[in-house]
Design a protein that fits this description.
Blueprint lengths: L6 E10 L4 E10 L4 E7 L7 E6 L6 E9 L2 E11 L11 E8 L2 E7 L7 E5 L5 E8 L2 E12 L28 E2 L1
Parallel strand pairs: 6-12
Antiparallel strand pairs: 1-2, 1-11, 2-3, 3-4, 4-5, 5-6, 7-8, 8-9, 9-10, 10-11
Length: 180
């Protein structure tokens, strides 16, 4: 599997294998600093919502904010984070040929097992085009749009419309560890 940057921003068009549209997700991800911002809207969520996580390099605790935009609601807590590379595929993932996805010729990288995940990278540039995720008996297709490698601007890690949330006061708990 090619080495893909772990600092990027993009939009994701989420669908099921039957073509049902689930929504649009925008994401800014920076593994090096431990910052992540996700915003989701569409028919799969009753209200647009987002998640913002900011991790200082030391200590190993993060501020995790989950919010809804209409009406404005905010949950903020401090948690321990186990940050993993976004583009990490399981051991045994292999190149499985070239396929046309969303009108682009793509190298396909397939995870092992009976219900594999498949990552599609544009031939020649290794730009992420899509991923097919197997969850139980269902398959989902996430089409990557406007993928921009490199450290995302700090402005992408702020809450929308100048909103703020109260500062978290809880101490990190190992039981609340979350892996991204």
């Amino acid at each position: 599997l090619p080495n893909l940057p772990e600092q990027f921003s993009m939009s994701i068009n989420m669908t099921t294998s039957s073509g049902e549209w689930l929504g649009i997700e925008t994401m800014a991800f920076n593994l090096e600093s431990g910052d992540n911002h996700i915003f989701v809207s569409g028919p799969s969520s009753s209200q647009p919502f987002g998640q913002l996580t900011v991790s200082p390099v030391s200590p190993a605790a993060s501020w995790f904010v989950q919010y809804e935009t209409t009406p404005w609601q905010c949950k903020n807590e401090t948690i321990q984070m186990l940050w993993q590379p976004f583009w990490q595929m399981p051991p045994g993932t292999n190149f499985s040929g070239v396929k046309t996805i969303a009108g682009q010729s793509c190298n396909t990288w397939q995870s092992p097992g009976p219900n594999p995940d498949v990552l599609y990278l544009a031939v020649g540039t290794n730009t992420p085009v899509a991923i097919q995720l197997a969850v139980g008996s269902r398959n989902f297709f996430y089409y990557y749009l406007n993928w921009t490698p490199g450290p995302p601007p700090a402005s992408l890690f702020t809450l929308p419309n100048g909103r703020t949330c109260p500062q978290a006061k809880k101490k990190p708990s190992a039981a609340r560890a979350i892996a991204f």
